[in-house]
Design a protein that fits this description.
It is built from ten helices and twelve strands. With 421 residues, the chain is an alpha+beta fold. The protein has three domains: 161 residues, no CATH class; 71 residues; 147 residues, 2-Layer Sandwich (Heat Shock Protein 90). A five-stranded antiparallel sheet has the order 1-2-5-3-4, covered by helices on one side. The protein has a five-stranded mixed sheet with strand order 7-9-10-12-11, with helices on one face. Helix 6 crosses helix 10. The longest helix is centred in the middle third of the chain and has 61 residues. The chain is rod-shaped, with a radius of gyration of 43 Å.
Length: 421
C-alpha cells in the first residue's frame, strides 16, 4: 500500500473519529437536557397537584404567583402559605408520584414556624432497587418564606440516565467502534512497517546475490570450455550441473526482483506493438530445447494478432505460465498454445495435461507466496511468486487472466487482451 494512501486514510479516519465523537457528544448532552427538562416538568406537576390537594384539605387558596422553585438540580421548594401536616404531605407525594409514573427516591422536610427550623420528614424509597438510603438532614432555611416544604431527589442523575438507555447504548457502541478503528489503524501501520522491512531485506538480499551469481556463471563457463573438462565425462557433468543450478538460482532472484519492481510506486510499463503469434513461436522454440520428452504445439486460429504491451513483461508472463505447465505435467507433457480473436478480445490459451488443481484452491493460485500442495512430494521448487507476478502484470496492462482446471486432467490458463483500436 502506498505511503501517501495510508497517510490520507489516517487523516480521513481521524476526521471521521472527531466527527463521530463530536456528534455523539452533542446528542448525548442534548438528550440529557431534554430528559432533565422532562424530569423537572413532571416534578412540578407532581408538586402542583400535591399543593392543590393540601390547599383543598386545609380550605385555603394557593399563592397566585409561582410558588414552586427549583433551587438546585434536585432540590425543590414549595411555598403554600398554610400550615402543613407532614403525614398528609408524605401520602400525597406518594400518590401523585405514582400517578405521574415518577418512580425515584425522594426525601422531604417541612418548615416549622414556631421553632423557625426545618423539620426533616422522611426518606421515601420508590425505586425497585435495594440500596442504602442517603439522607440529608442539613437543609437550608428560606427566610423570605413562611409556610413551605422542600423535596429533594437524591437519585435524580441515575433516574435521568435510566431514561437514556438507548442513547447511552449507542454512545458506548460508537466509542467501541472508534476504539476498534484505532486498533485497526495501529495494526495496519504495524503491518506496513513490517512489510517495508521485509521488502527492504528481500531487495538487499537479492541484489547481493547478483554479484556471486554472475561470478559463478563466468567461472562455470570457463570451466565448461576447458578441454580437460570436456574430455572427462564426470567433470563435464559436474560443470553442467553448476551452470544449470546457477541459472535456476538466477531465475529465482529475477522473479523476486520483478516482484519488487512491480510493487514500487514508480513502476512503469514500456509498451510497444507486439506480434503475439511470432512472439509465442519464439518462446515455444526456445523452451522446446529444454523439454526432453513431450511436445509444445501452436494453434493460431487468427493470424496477425497485435497487442500494445511491454515486451519484456509479456514474454515473462508467457514463459512463467509455460514453465509451470512443464513443471506440473507428467513425464510426457503435452502443452498447447491457442490464439484467436473473439468479441473484441485477443485470447491466448495455454493448456496442459498436468496434475490439475482442486476447485477450492483455484482462486488462490494467484496469491503471493501461495503454492498448490503436491502432497509429500516436493520435487517442484519455487517461491510461489510466479503466478502472483503474472496476475499483477496482467492487471497493470488491463488484461484479464483466468484459470480452468480439473484434478488429474490438466489446467488451462486464459489471457484476454482487448483488441487494439
Amino acid at each position: 500500500m502506498q505511503r501517501n494512501l495510508i497517510q490520507r486514510l489516517v487523516i480521513l479516519g481521524g476526521l471521521v473519529i472527531i466527527g463521530i465523537l463530536s456528534t455523539q457528544s452533542y446528542w448525548l448532552l442534548k438528550t440529557w437536557d431534554l430528559k432533565d427538562q422532562e424530569f423537572d416538568l413532571t416534578v412540578r406537576k407532581v408538586l402542583l397537584k400535591v399543593s392543590q390537594r393540601i390547599a383543598n384539605f386545609n380550605n385555603f387558596e394557593l399563592p397566585k404567583k409561582s410558588f414552586i422553585e427549583r433551587t438546585s438540580s434536585n432540590y425543590y421548594v414549595v411555598n403554600i402559605n398554610s400550615g402543613i401536616d407532614a403525614n398528609i404531605l408524605e401520602d400525597y407525594l406518594y400518590q401523585e408520584m405514582g400517578n405521574f409514573s415518577l418512580r425515584t427516591d425522594f426525601e422531604y422536610s417541612v418548615f416549622d414556624c414556631t421553632s423557625k427550623e426545618m423539620v426533616y420528614g422522611n426518606y421515601c424509597d420508590l425505586s425497585d432497587e435495594d440500596k442504602v438510603s442517603e439522607t440529608n438532614t442539613n437543609l437550608p432555611i428560606f427566610t423570605d418564606l413562611d409556610y413551605y416544604f422542600v423535596v429533594r431527589f437524591p437519585s435524580r442523575e441515575s433516574f435521568v440516565l435510566a431514561n437514556m438507555r438507548m442513547t447511552v447504548l449507542f454512545s458506548i457502541i460508537a466509542i467501541l467502534s472508534v476504539l476498534f478503528f484505532l486498533y485497526m489503524i495501529y495494526i495496519v501501520l504495524k503491518q506496513k512497517r513490517l512489510s517495508e522491512l521485509q521488502k527492504d531485506f528481500i531487495n538487499n538480499m537479492t541484489h547481493e546475490f547478483k554479484t556471486p551469481i554472475s561470478s559463478i556463471k563466468i567461472a562455470a563457463d570457463v570451466l565448461s570450455n576447458n578441454e580437460n573438462v570436456k574430455s572427462d565425462s564426470r567433470l563435464k557433468r559436474y560443470a553442467s550441473i553448476i551452470t544449470e543450478q546457477n541459472q535456476r538460482l538466477n531465475d529465482q532472484v529475477e522473479k523476486v526482483l520483478n516482484i519488487a519492481r512491480l510493487e514500487k510506486d514508480n513502476f512503469e510499463l514500456k509498451k510497444e506493438n507486439i506480434d503475439v503469434n511470432g512472439t509465442l513461436a519464439n518462446i515455444v522454440q526456445n523452451e522446446s530445447v529444454r523439454l526432453k520428452e513431450g511436445k509444445i504445439s501452436l494453434d493460431f486460429k487468427t493470424d496477425n494478432i497485435e497487442i500494445l504491451a511491454d515486451p519484456l513483461h509479456f514474454t515473462n508472463v508467457i514463459t512463467t505460465v509455460l514453465d509451470n505447465a512443464i513443471k506440473y505435467s507428467p513425464k510426457n507433457p503435452n502443452i498447447e498454445f491457442t490464439t484467436e480473436q473473439r468479441n473484441n478480445l485477443n485470447i491466448i490459451q495455454i493448456k496442459d495435461n498436468g496434475i490439475g488443481i482442486e476447485k477450492d484452491k483455484l482462486k488462490q493460485i494467484f496469491d503471493k507466496f501461495y503454492r498448490v500442495s503436491t502432497g509429500d512430494v516436493h520435487n517442484v521448487k519455487g517461491f510461489g511468486l510466479g503466478l502472483f507476478y503474472v496476475k499483477n502484470i496482467c492487471n497493470a496492462h488491463g488484461w484479464i487472466i483466468d484459470a480452468q482446471s480439473e484434478l488429474g486432467v490438466g489446467t488451462t490458463f486464459i489471457i484476454k487482451i482487448p483488441v487494439k483500436l
